């Protein structure tokens, strides 16, 4: 059958496969800095095992049943409490539970984006957010970053221009804390400035925040949502990096109106997030498993970041530079301008047995070709050192 002829026009935007194809060459002896996976030793396995049997004893019928689309009320209440410790004031009614933050990104596309609508992002930004939205055909506008995060002065200029052109700006997407892919954190002043711009031009802000729970440095920043007095920030977070990504549990905190629209959009997508999973995370919060786990996560990832930074310092040739992430899971490396990291990946995987994600896909226009993202949380300390040594050899040979 000619499946190709049957595909929707939307399907042509689904181009994740390119990197998957490259990484498919990765055999067991390849050290991968490619994925975005937590270190499995951070999963609170014993606690989760106890919680699962408790949940199945205490409320088996609810846990194994369909549930409300917006999520279990008690979990939404518990997340409201959890968020309050981070300065975010919310009621259960402001919260919708999603299948990881990734579903929230999809819901944003479904609810807000018409072809040609403008979505503003940091440039580079989270590749899978761009992938989720491309099918809705937005005009993606990227704002450059510096060590203090998105360059908000440039954002303001662009917003002014776009408004003058009559563009329909749907939202500004930011990952302000320990950004994926750069690891950089937006300063508190910038956060306030960003919100001022949003207020001045009456724009929605989407704050994607999987990483602020484990910053490696004592940086004083609050979620932008905590500064939001006009209900224009849609805040996304997730249990993936602080509990276990396999559960696929995330949440959105927003105005009740946005929650209602997300609820409608989610109904046809998957009816509800797994009840069993929601009860597991509810108990995880109630028993303090999440907060208890955080210092271990922070300590391990800080040591792994430091190991990767030290290896980069030791092995990388002149002309290669990298970020010093304040948290999160990634270091962003810039190679000399003549190097195309997609080409480099082929050689790195087949000859040097090391993998990474080429930077192209993180840019709204794929314009930068000499960058790459390295994950430091999943590989072991030995793999970090050996993998960076190999990568440096591949770069010297390129
Ligand atoms: N947003 C960002 C910035 C991420 O880095 C990730 C995961 N790597 C996600 C969203 C999606 O996470 P999940 O669906 O596991 O919650």
UniProtKB/TrEMBL annotation:
<protein>
    <submittedName>
        <fullName>Transcriptional regulator (MocR family)</fullName>
        <ecNumber>2.6.1.39</ecNumber>
        <ecNumber>2.6.1.7</ecNumber>
    </submittedName>
</protein>
<dbReference type="GO" id="GO:1901605">
    <property type="term" value="P:alpha-amino acid metabolic process"/>
</dbReference>
<comment type="subunit">
    <text>Homodimer.</text>
</comment>
<dbReference type="InterPro" id="IPR050859">
    <property type="entry name" value="Class-I_PLP-dep_aminotransf"/>
</dbReference>
<keyword id="KW-0808">Transferase</keyword>
<dbReference type="GO" id="GO:0016212">
    <property type="term" value="F:kynurenine-oxoglutarate transaminase activity"/>
</dbReference>
<keyword id="KW-0663">Pyridoxal phosphate</keyword>
<dbReference type="GO" id="GO:0030170">
    <property type="term" value="F:pyridoxal phosphate binding"/>
</dbReference>
<dbReference type="InterPro" id="IPR015424">
    <property type="entry name" value="PyrdxlP-dep_Trfase"/>
</dbReference>
<dbReference type="Pfam" id="PF00155">
    <property type="entry name" value="Aminotran_1_2"/>
</dbReference>
<keyword id="KW-0032">Aminotransferase</keyword>
<feature type="domain" description="Aminotransferase class I/classII large">
    <location>
        <begin position="44"/>
        <end position="391"/>
    </location>
</feature>
<dbReference type="InterPro" id="IPR015422">
    <property type="entry name" value="PyrdxlP-dep_Trfase_small"/>
</dbReference>
<dbReference type="GO" id="GO:0047536">
    <property type="term" value="F:2-aminoadipate transaminase activity"/>
</dbReference>
<comment type="similarity">
    <text>Belongs to the class-I pyridoxal-phosphate-dependent aminotransferase family.</text>
</comment>
<dbReference type="InterPro" id="IPR004839">
    <property type="entry name" value="Aminotransferase_I/II_large"/>
</dbReference>
<dbReference type="InterPro" id="IPR015421">
    <property type="entry name" value="PyrdxlP-dep_Trfase_major"/>
</dbReference>
């Amino acid at each position: 059958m000619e499946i190709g002829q049957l595909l929707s026009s939307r399907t042509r935007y689904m181009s994740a496969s390119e990197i998957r194809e490259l990484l498919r060459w990765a055999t067991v002896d390849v050290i991968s800095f490619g994925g975005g996976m937590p270190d499995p030793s951070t999963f609170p396995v014993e606690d989760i095992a106890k919680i699962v049997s408790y949940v199945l004893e205490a409320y088996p019928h609810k846990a194994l049943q369909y549930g409300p689309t917006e999520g279990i009320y008690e979990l939404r209440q518990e997340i409201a409490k959890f968020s309050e410790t981070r300065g975010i004031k919310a009621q259960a009614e402001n919260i919708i539970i999603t299948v990881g933050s990734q579903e929230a990104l999809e819901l944003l596309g479904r609810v807000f984006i018409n072809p040609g609508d403008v979505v503003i992002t940091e440039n580079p930004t989270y590749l899978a957010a761009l992938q989720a939205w491309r099918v809705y055909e937005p005009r993606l506008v990227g704002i450059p970053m510096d060590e203090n995060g998105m360059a908000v002065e440039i954002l303001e200029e662009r917003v002014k221009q776009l408004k003058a052109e009559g563009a329909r700006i749907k939202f500004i997407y930011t990952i302000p804390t320990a950004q994926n892919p750069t690891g950089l954190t937006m300063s508190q002043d910038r956060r306030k400035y960003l919100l001022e711009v949003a207020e001045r031009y009456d724009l929605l802000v989407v704050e994607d925040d999987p990483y602020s729970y484990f910053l490696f440095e004592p940086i004083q920043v609050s979620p932008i949502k905590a500064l939001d007095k006009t209900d224009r920030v849609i805040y996304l977070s997730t249990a993936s990096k602080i509990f276990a990504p396999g559960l696929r549990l995330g949440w959105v905190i927003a105005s009740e109106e946005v929650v209602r629209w997300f609820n409608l959009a989610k109904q046809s997508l998957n009816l509800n997030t797994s009840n069993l999973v929601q009860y597991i995370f509810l108990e995880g919060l109630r028993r303090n498993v999440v907060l208890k786990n955080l210092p271990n996560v922070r300590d391990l990832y800080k040591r792994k970041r430091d190991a990767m930074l030290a290896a980069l310092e030791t092995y990388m040739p002149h002309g290669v530079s990298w970020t010093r992430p304040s948290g999160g899971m990634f270091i962003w490396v810039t190679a000399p301008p003549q190097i195309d990291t997609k080409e480099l990946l082929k050689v790195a995987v087949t000859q040097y047995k090391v993998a990474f994600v080429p930077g192209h896909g993180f840019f709204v226009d794929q314009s930068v070709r000499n960058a790459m993202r390295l994950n430091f949380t999943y590989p072991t300390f030995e793999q970090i050192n050996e993998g960076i040594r190999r990568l440096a050899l591949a770069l010297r040979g390129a």
